[in-house]
Design goal:
Largest sheet: 7 strands, mixed
Oligomer: single chain
Number of domains: 3
CATH topology of the largest domain: Aspartate Aminotransferase, domain 2
Bound molecules: pyridoxal-5'-phosphate
Number of strands: 15
CATH architecture of the largest domain: 3-Layer(aba) Sandwich
């Protein structure tokens, strides 16, 4: 190691404060905070020092040449810092409600409509007639009343919060009668028994894992009972020899025992459109028409809006839930109300069919997807890829409609050199990450969950595959 050279090189590297006096840097100081530029420069200068220590430069001129790029290095560093964590990705998995990819996309139309309201003041908790304070809880009641006469709503952060709030309202220190077959874990993080414990309710399991009858509920009711509960099993379904009681069959029992019956529906499936056949996904109309007194669901599953826990129920129960102080900690922001208001309006008018992206995806026929897949395939010029269209299935996902699959046509990709897992990784490294499915040693892309306007991104990613190292 040449100590002389090292010392000379170190002396060539200026201090941050000295750099800040340079002419060219003033324009950055006008746009960004001084501390932000200072810390960016520090990082760059540290890199120079590290290179010196590593013996990278053999002459002083090499360092000064490298230093000539300082402005570019600063721009790169600023970009790196401002590069958002959240990025647009292409969902090529064919899972419509992909829990890790933000569940249901929110329609453009909603965001356009709420822009003006969200960026200004609005009557979130203000009664325009009396000029007095009002409550946000009532905002959606008019739509709920039109869609489900005799019902009102409470909105919280998500369905898990909805269940917590309900249990805490009706069963604090009391028993909740629930079928053993419905003590489910959803998405690895929502466990009914644990939520129940946190809420202060006591679990009263009835029946066996595969068989619960109406008498099991009846016999479990006592002076200690706070409520009856049913849970849609979501992504968990017991097959074979099973007997479970749908919530509507418990309405009479709950009424005669004067107890609330709560159904955790999960999906928020409002209608089952004719062209989509969900075999066992009861919709909200069926649940309310049959008199189930309290229902909870997520705003971002089949309901197709944003994250929220929607509780709809008979006024006497909604009143008690609204009085629970815990609601103050679980309530949602104006943005959620604005989006939900637009979603309910789209259900009232029937526009949801064309506006909600998830309904467009659910409705796409195999033929339509095949046409798109074929035309995408024709535009792949990357000679290292073997591409074909194969038959397969899309998934509804999101813990909704557990075993529901939809026929689709998949683009199957095999790379000459890259193993499937590697190909999948490279596609994730594209400028806009393309998320794919892996099955039978093939990388698969399902266009059902890809907007047509995004097909170009997939074509580019495949044609200019990130080969790197
Ligand atoms: C998805 C789901 C939940 C959890 O809902 P989040 O909105 O994610 O909190 C609870 N119960 C059921 C039945 C579900 O399907």
């Amino acid at each position: 190691m040449n100590n002389d050279l090292t010392n000379k090189l170190f002396r060539e590297i200026p201090s941050v404060d000295k750099l800040l006096k340079n002419e060219w840097i003033q324009k950055y100081l006008r746009v960004y905070d001084r501390d932000f530029i200072k810390s960016s420069l520090s990082i760059i200068l540290d890199e120079f020092r590290k290179k010196v220590n590593d013996g990278f430069y053999r002459e002083v001129t090499e360092l000064t040449q490298d230093f000539a790029d300082l402005e570019e290095k600063l721009i790169t560093e600023i970009d790196k810092k401002l590069n958002s964590y959240l990025k647009k990705v292409i969902n090529g998995t064919g899972v419509i409600l992909h829990t890790n990819l933000g569940r249901s996309p929110i329609p453009h139309e909603f965001l356009e409509k709420i822009d003006d309201l969200a960026t200004g003041y609005l009557n979130l908790e203000f009664d325009l007639e009396s000029g007095k304070r009002s409550k946000r809880d009532i905002i959606l009641d008019r739509y709920i009343e039109l869609l489900f006469p005799g019902y009102q709503s409470v909105i919280v952060n998500n369905n898990a919060a909805a269940v917590l709030l309900i249990l805490n309202t009706f069963a604090l220190g009391k028993e909740v009668v629930i079928s053993r077959g419905e003590l489910v874990e959803i998405g690895g993080s929502f466990r009914i028994p644990e939520v129940m414990q946190k809420s202060g309710a006591i679990l009263k399991e009835v029946g066996t894992t595969n068989k619960t009858g109406i008498n099991d509920y009846k016999n479990a009711i006592s002076g200690k009972t706070g409520m009856l509960m049913t849970v849609h099993p979501s992504n968990y379904k017991i097959s074979g020899f099973t007997l479970s009681i749908p919530p509507w069959d418990l309405v009479g029992l709950a009424e005669s025992a004067n107890l609330p019956l709560v159904h955790d529906m999960g999906s928020g499936n409002m209608f089952t459109p004719d062209e989509i056949a969900f075999s066992d996904e009861p919709d909200l109309h069926k649940l309310t028409r049959s008199g189930v007194p309290v229902i909870t669901f997520s705003g971002d599953k089949l309901f197709g809006a944003c994250q929220a826990g929607v509780i709809i129920g008979k006024p006497e129960y909604i009143k008690q839930i609204r009085q629970n102080q815990l609601l103050r900690a679980l309530r949602v922001d104006k943005l959620t109300y604005l989006i939900l208001e637009e979603a309910f309006k789209s259900y009232l008018t029937g526009k949801y069919r064309n506006i909600l992206p998830i309904y467009r995806m659910l409705r796409l026929s195999k033929n339509e997807i095949e046409k798109r897949a074929t035309s995408v395939m024709k535009r792949i010029t990357n000679q290292d890829l073997t591409i074909e269209c194969i038959q397969g299935y899309s998934l509804v996902g999101g813990g909704s409609a557990p075993e529901e699959t939809l026929e689709t046509v998949l683009i199957s990709l095999i790379h000459k050199e890259l193993k499937p897992l590697e190909l999948q990784t490279r596609l994730r490294a594209s400028e806009v990450p393309v998320i794919t499915r892996l099955e039978n040693d093939q990388v698969l892309i399902d266009l059902r969950t890809v907007e047509e306007s995004d097909e170009e991104i997939i074509i580019d990613s495949l044609n200019f595959l990130q080969m790197g190292n």
